[in-house]
Each structure stands twice: as C-alpha cells, then as structure tokens.
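Final report, closing paragraph on structural work. Over the funding period we assembled a curated collection of sequence-structure pairs, and we close with a single example.
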Amino acid sequence: IYAATNRGVIVSSDGGQSWRYLEQSGLASTQIKRLAFSPENPPLLYAATSLGVARYDAKQKRWQLLTSGLTGRVVNDLALSTTAILAATAEGLYRYPLNPAQTEEEASSLNEVKEHFAHEPSVLQVQQAAIRYAEVHPEKIAAWRQQARWQALLPDLTLSTDTNLTDFRHWDSGTSPDSLLRGERDIDWSASLTWDFGDFVWSTDQTSIDSRSKLMVELRDDIVDTVTRTYFERRRLQAVQLTHPLADSAKQLEQALRIEELTALIDGLTGGYFSTDVGD
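Its predicted structure, as stored:
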C-alpha cells in the first residue's frame, strides 16, 4: 500500500499494520498530492508533486523527475491510461508516454517534422526582420539620445543689425543753408554664441524622446506579437498537413490557401524577407 503525504511517500507491505518512508533519492519535492501505480516489470510508481511528476523505479530504488514539456510544475492530480500518464496542472493537461519505445518513436517523428522546416527562418529571425522593416529597433532610441547629447555642444547663434538714419539727409546749416546734404549711413551689427550647460545633463529633447520611445516600444511589442502568432499558426497548419493529410481535396485547397495567406501576412510584416529567405 502506498500513501501520499506532505513529507514524502509512505509504504506498507503488511496491509497497513506498519509503515515506512519510501526512498527519497532523486525526489525534488516531498509534497505529494496524488499517486498513480503502473504494474510494469518492475512496477512503476508516479507521484504528483509541487515540482512536476516524479517516477519511482523500485528496481533502482530512486525517483526521476519528469518535466520535459511541462510548463506548470505544480501537479494537482494524476491519471493513467494504457499508453500514457496524464498530469493535471493549472496551465493545462500534460501527457507523458509510459512506453519508452513509444517515446523514442514520437521523438523521432517530431524531429522529422522539424527537419522538414529547417530551411525556413526561425521565429526569432522573423521577429528581428519585422522590427528592422518597421524601424522600431531599440538602437534607434539609443541614437536619438546620443544625438540629443551631441546637440548640447552646439551653441545658439544670434545675429542683430541696426541702422542709424537720423543724419542721413539734412539741410546744410553752413554757408549754403538751402542745400540738402546726404550724410553717411550708420550700420551696426553684432553676433553672439550662447551655450546652455544644463543641456549636457538633461535637455527638453529628452522628454520628447521618452514619449516617442514609449510609443515605439508599444508598437514593437504589437508587431512582435502579431508576427509570432502568425508564424506559429502557419507552422501548425504545415505540421498538420504533413502528419495528418486531408482526404478531401477541397479542404486540402483551403488549407494550402490559408498557409499562403499566412505567408503573405508575414511577408507584409517583414518587407518580403520571409519568402525571400525561404526561396534561398
């Protein structure tokens, strides 16, 4: 008899008359919520823990933590089918094959599907291409801030001129009082250069840059989110097309057109990068 406790698994071999703790070697968490037993040879015991699903091998007398593909580590319940163990988490249902040969076969099949798309850009490459095409890369904001600092080195130039016309034309008050005389034009000019040394620390341009950078970050996040969802929707359809081909020709055409539509959407977000790279 096996029993789950918050301090590990206890076992009784005499119908519950006496109990002992099962070995804890390899057990990352002793908070056990549920147990499931598989009558293999040797028999295998599975435990739902706060850090994932743990499997106990009675022959080796040690635990192994099964976390591959498990996003939610806190396992609340377990169930066994003929081919797999099912683990219930807050993030969803996790399936782990019981047959190691089946696991290897599925892994091999998965690798074959992945190799089929090896010639296509990765999602990270597509994200970077979309950011470059939209010109919302972080380096652009850094360049703005650098330019604002260099601008503080440039002075403000002020030019001013002044013309004195008071005596430009006047009547002669000397020997010929009736003569209109023309005097010299008096023109004054000046130039000044001023620096605001406070701009070396913080300028009004920085406030504008902060506002623009906030909008740019929001736009970049939207672009990355859109291109990522589109990329993986296309990839899922491609995987289904390979692993579960449709018998209906009309549905096959619809599926192929949807893949082409998603490809065009990614091209629109990357300036044609995706199709060009796939073609190369």
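Helices lie at 100-116, 123-134, 138-151, 204-243, 249-270, 273-279. The longest strand covers residues 156-164. We thank the funder for supporting this effort.
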